[in-house]
Design goal:
The complex is a heterodimer of chains A (about 300) and B (about 325). Chain A has about 300 residues and is mostly helical. Chain A has 13 helices and no strands. In chain B, about 45% of the residues are buried. Chain B is of the alpha/beta class and about 325 residues long. Classes of the chains: A mainly alpha (about 300), B alpha/beta (about 325). At the A-B interface, helix 1, helix 10 and helix 11 of A face helix 2, strand 6, helix 3 and helix 4 of B. Chain B: It comes from Antarcticimicrobium sediminis.
Chain lengths: ~300, ~325
């Protein structure tokens, strides 16, 4: 190919800031994302290193030191967040409880994310009969009340961590499917999809490298929403006595066990409640922030 | 004219359109018995109103849609038999809207190198070199390599789209209204670029447009499409000097003049574009044609040869009772 010189040689050397440099700058400028990321990473760290960080055994009961107040309500540093009605160290249980919440949130969101995204993208891309089947399945799923189904399954199979994760993972894919289907429909009509097809790209390449990158920021938002949703549902199921079974430490279970003493010792409910609230808030902030940072329209 | 590089033989595309939940699907003839041929280095302008089937024809040529009947031949080979990659090496598109034809998630380097990667051409280093050369060819500096489409202007984006279409050195480029989304000042730059590239690489263009000024500037031959049919085809000079079909005349009359005191031109087309699901009987154009007679309502005109092409109109058919040899509209 003969090449016409249309630019000065100097211009060729300037390639500008790389995409990675631009991304780093945008991440560090987003307060919400940084806050969410920090809280989630801290809780992740706490969950992974729970045995090293917990001051006591979360299962060890001590009937002589029941309902000790936390340190800020006149307790001692022996039990910084006090003890529960069986004399178990509240901080240790909170730390071990982070494992349950994060595990359920992450795994349930991952399972339902894979199911829902596959269904939604297939429906949006192929349309026709595939779309009709997926839409029908979404409608069937939406007609089922999650908590009721989860309660029924847990009542039959017994409450354990695996059962709760499985049930939530198989039930929470509806929003993924709905949003991914709509986003795929929208992106599929763009001319760059037709251009990639005209180049001869395979269907899998068109979906994975042309369509997916353009809908992944919607996916991020749904992942974080569903992660928070799963964590809250686990807490609700545990509160109802059908989630994680005692004595396994879980934040929902701690709230449930504390509710009898709520009027006299409100911190029993408040402490796990506040931590749960912080985790869900942080996950949502992180999702919002990731979407903001990766959206092409915010690039400038 | 040399042996045709691209040939369409009686190509038709019928969609089945469902009306309402329980309605019976009805056929919609988006492209109806179209025969065209393009010689090497030729630029065929395809003009017509919105919805006349221009873009469907482009999709068929690109292999994105299967024709319901008929054949598309590239260098005498039917494209149905070729695999998609082989077809893609010969025909490439330039789309209308450069804001939608470039993936906003990819850098310019990614977009332009995609054909090379799909076809497994060269290694990373030679691909990068090829991308730089092609960008230079379309007048873009190397510093755009790491930028995203959203950071570019419409004209620059269209240059990227041209670079992507040309990097595999295709023989035929389907330009689907490549300038209609651009500012007037940028339009001429892109048109001149397309013209230079054609001369340099001996490209063949199918140039789809509704802008007659653009077609007159670039095309060597023009085909006028109405409701899925080619109603008139001729060399560009013949068609613009002596339009035969009343529809061609109406299109030429519809061009706006820069003088506002002349007002909006009257096309004399009257009623709106007909519903393609139930096209008018006989000649599809008769409800809007100022010269229509009863014959037009009952009998579809056959293609009649004219200077440099053909025309489908009873007024030019020597076997017709309406024949008027002196009729030039």
């Amino acid at each position: 190919m003969s090449v016409k010189k249309t630019t000065a040689p100097l211009m060729e050397e300037i390639t500008g800031p790389t995409p990675r440099q631009i991304l780093r700058k945008r991440v560090t400028g987003h307060t919400g994302l940084l806050f969410g990321l920090a809280v989630v990473l801290i809780l992740l760290f706490v969950a992974i290193f729970a045995p090293l960080l917990a001051p006591h055994d979360p299962y060890a009961q001590s009937l002589s030191s029941r309902m000790v107040s936390p340190v800020f309500l006149g307790g001692t540093w022996e039990h910084p967040l006090g003890t529960d009605h069986l004399g178990r160290d509240y901080l240790s249980r909170l730390i071990y409880g982070a494992r349950v919440s994060l595990l359920i949130g992450a795994v349930a969101a991952a399972i339902s994310g894979v199911i829902g995204t596959a269904m939604g993208v297939a429906a949006g891309y192929f349309g026709g009969k595939v779309d009709a089947v997926v839409t029908f399945l979404i409608n069937v799923r939406l007609a089922m009340p999650v908590v009721l189904v989860a309660l029924a399954v847990v009542a039959i199979l017994g409450g354990s961590l695996q059962v709760v994760i499985g049930v939530l993972g198989l039930l929470l894919w509806d929003r993924f499917a709905v949003v991914m289907r709509a986003s795929t429909l929208q992106v599929r009509r763009r001319e760059y999809v037709a251009a990639a097809q005209a180049i001869g790209a395979s269907t899998s390449r068109v979906i994975l490298s042309e369509i997916m990158p353009n809908i992944v920021n919607n996916l991020i938002v749904i992942v974080t929403l569903e992660m928070a949703h799963a964590i809250l549902l686990e807490a609700a199921l545990s509160f109802l006595g059908l989630g994680v079974q005692p004595p396994t430490p879980s934040w929902g279970l701690m709230i449930s066990e504390g509710k009898n003493m709520m009027l006299f010792e409100p911190w029993l409910v408040l402490i796990p409640g506040v931590v749960l609230f912080m985790l869900v808030l942080a996950i949502n902030l992180m999702g919002d922030g990731l979407r903001d940072v990766t959206a092409p329209e915010n690039r400038s | 004219m040399s042996a045709p590089v691209l040939e369409l033989k009686n190509v038709a595309k019928t969609y089945r359109v469902k009306q309402g939940m329980f309605g019976k699907p009805k056929p919609l003839n988006a492209v109806n018995d179209v025969s065209l041929s393009l010689g090497r280095g030729e630029v065929l302008g395809l003009v017509g109103e919105s919805g006349c089937g221009k873009s469907t024809l482009a999709k068929i040529l690109l292999g994105l849609e299967e024709p319901t009947s008929g054949q598309v031949l590239v260098d005498g080979e039917a494209i149905g038999g070729q695999d998609r990659l082989a077809l893609a090496r010969r025909i490439q598109p330039i789309f209308q809207d450069p804001y939608s034809s470039l993936n906003p998630r990819k850098t310019i380097a990614d977009i332009v190198s995609l054909p090379l990667r799909v076809h497994g051409v060269g290694d990373a280093k030679s691909r990068a070199k090829s991308v730089r050369e092609t960008l230079e060819l379309v007048g873009l500096p190397a510093r755009v390599l790491n930028t995203y489409p959203s950071q570019m202007s419409g004209g620059q984006r269209q240059r990227v789209a041209i670079a992507r279409a040309l990097i595999m050195h295709p023989e035929i480029v389907i330009c689907d209204e490549p300038t209609s989304a651009l500012d007037v000042s940028v339009q001429s730059q892109i048109l001149n670029l397309l013209n230079e590239l054609r001369a340099e690489f001996g490209l063949t263009y199918l140039f789809i447009s509704h802008d007659l000024a653009v077609v007159e500037h670039l095309a060597t031959r023009v085909a006028v499409m109405y409701l899925g049919r080619i109603v008139e085809e001729a060399d560009v000079g013949d068609l613009f000097d002596a339009p035969r079909h009343p529809y061609t005349r109406a299109l030429l009359n519809s061009v706006l003049t820069p003088d506002p005191s002349l007002g909006v031109p009257d096309t004399q087309l009257g009623s709106a574009y007909p519903n393609p699901i139930s096209p008018p009987s006989g000649c599809h154009f008769h409800p809007r044609c100022p010269f229509a007679e009863t014959l037009c309502k009952t009998k579809a005109p056959r293609p009649v040869p004219r200077a440099g092409g053909h025309v489908e109109c009873h007024l030019h058919d020597p076997d017709s009772t309406m024949y008027r040899p002196d009729f030039t509209v």
